[in-house]
């Protein structure tokens, strides 16, 4: 079972791949939109990669609720 830290590190790598933001700067407190400049198209790409990496399904209506990286970590941790 992955820890929240491991999930965070993997999501940070995904954000780095999609957005070009250094994964070291991607913390649980960071807002996808406000801090990481993730637009809706990039969020779809991040979501697909998170779903593939963690074998979870994130319904479209829940993607909008993932405002911070920490929200995404919690979602993955609670739905694995």
From TrEMBL:
A cellular-component GO term for this protein: cytosol
Pathways involved: Lipid metabolism; fatty acid biosynthesis
Keywords (A to Z) from UniProt: Cytoplasm, Fatty acid biosynthesis, Fatty acid metabolism, Lipid biosynthesis, Lipid metabolism, Phosphopantetheine, Phosphoprotein
Keyword Membrane: no
Modification O-(pantetheine 4'-phosphoryl)serine occurs at: 40
PTM entry text: 4'-phosphopantetheine is transferred from CoA to a specific serine of apo-ACP by AcpS. This modification is essential for activity because fatty acids are bound in thioester linkage to the sulfhydryl of the prosthetic group. 4'-phosphopantetheine is transferred from CoA to a specific serine of apo-ACP by acpS.
Similarity annotation: Belongs to the acyl carrier protein (ACP) family.
PANTHER family xrefs: ACYL CARRIER PROTEIN, CARRIER DOMAIN-CONTAINING PROTEIN
Protein name (Swiss-Prot/TrEMBL): Acyl carrier protein
Gene (UniProt): acpP
